[in-house]
Design a protein that fits this description.
This protein has about 350 residues and is α+β, with helices and mostly antiparallel strands. The chain contains 14 helices and eight strands. About 45% of the residues lie in helices and about 10% in strands.
């Protein structure tokens, strides 16, 4: 497949006039800063990511700072961004970069991809934007630009469609000004070739865009086949003291909200009350239900009901049944604890803190 120089030239000319230059990760570019931004921008809009990125960089300005930080500190900085496996993988990779590569990012694609949470597109972005290398990228914006320009049918999550798009990404990536081109095609997707209401009249490659020619922009890229989301009902055991403390449990690393702190979760009300009785000594008859809260995950909808137990002091029944005391701790509600917390739990604790 021959290179498409006209496509890259048009994008670079457009980028010189209209490309974004104000984003915080575009300044003082280092592999670390680009990497953190790329991970944050997975599943997250730019404007949402910016304050999290700035706070993260202020707390952990280097890869060694990240590697040496406690996991709870990393997850705390990620609270509210969701998809917490990204933060755990970021932490794991930082440790490997420091132990296996002496704190320097590897400068080849395969070694970068071998690190937890770094896929081919993220590795390509690090190489192109911060290390002077050449590798294609294929984030959501780039997929949309290429799918429309070439009228690639089908959902990009399908292997054959994804392979087509990677081939086109490679074909269009130039050998000069690679960093500018990489930023240009991302910017084009973010500001011009948007998912809805694309600004086709200002697009630098509009004359040869097959989707525009057939007025079928909305058809590309193809959508993921939709399935109805099932609902799950859960009960959270919430022990609180009159002095304003709450008992939280660190969740297992694997699974929803992995590694975050939250009230223990149960599949039925009786189990939550039994846990509260065995752990803090409050009988089922003295527990009471709070207002349910709701949260939508990728694959299901959660309906969660707090089961409250009012305690006089922050102690556990001795010996508490089935309790790993390293992963069960009392926290003050004011302010909300500086550990990794799921966003719905932050809202719950804020409410409890205001009432305490």
């Amino acid at each position: 497949m021959t290179a498409n120089h006209a496509f890259a030239d048009a994008l670079l000319h457009w980028f010189d006039q209209h490309g974004r230059s104000h984003l915080p990760w575009q300044h003082n570019r280092t592999p670390y800063r680009v990497w953190v931004s790329e991970i944050m921008l997975q599943q997250t809009q730019v404007m949402t990511a910016i304050p999290f990125y700035e706070r993260f960089m202020a707390a952990m300005p280097t890869v060694r700072d990240l590697a040496e930080a406690p996991e709870d500190a990393v997850l705390y900085l990620w609270t509210g961004l969701g998809y917490y496996a990204r933060a755990r993988n970021l932490h794991r990779s930082a440790k490997l970069i420091c132990t296996d590569y002496d704190g320097r990012f590897p400068d080849n694609l395969d070694d970068l991809i071998s690190l937890p949470g770094i896929g081919r597109s993220t590795a390509g972005a690090i190489l192109c934007l911060a290390m002077g290398g050449r590798a294609p990228i294929l984030d959501g914006n780039v997929k949309r630009v290429l799918a429309r320009y070439y009228a690639i049918e089908g959902w990009p999550g399908q292997r054959t469609v994804n392979d087509q798009l990677w081939s086109l990404a490679e074909r269009n990536t130039p050998h000069e000004r690679v960093a500018d081109y990489t930023q240009a095609i991302m910017d084009l997707g973010a500001t011009c070739c948007k998912r809805t209401q694309p600004s086709c009249t200002t697009c630098p490659v509009q004359t040869k865009c097959r989707a525009l020619v057939t007025q079928s922009q909305a058809a590309f890229p193809g959508r993921k086949p939709q399935k109805p989301k099932p609902s799950r009902q859960r009960w959270f055991a919430v022990a609180i003291t009159s002095s304003g403390e709450v008992l939280l449990q660190k969740r297992p690393v694997k699974g929803i909200w992995g590694g975050l702190w939250a009230p223990p979760e149960f599949s039925d009300e009786a189990s939550a009350k039994e846990w509260l009785h065995d752990t803090v000594g409050i009988s089922a008859g003295n527990c009471y239900l709070g207002t349910p809260f709701y949260h939508v995950f990728t694959h299901f909808k959660l309906e969660a009901t707090p089961v409250y137990a009012q305690c006089s002091e922050n102690q556990l029944v001795s010996p508490a049944v089935n309790i790993d005391e390293e992963n069960v701790r009392w926290f003050s509600l004011r302010p909300v604890p500086s550990v990794g917390l799921p966003a719905p739990i932050v809202r719950l604790l804020n409410t409890l803190g205001n009432d305490a």
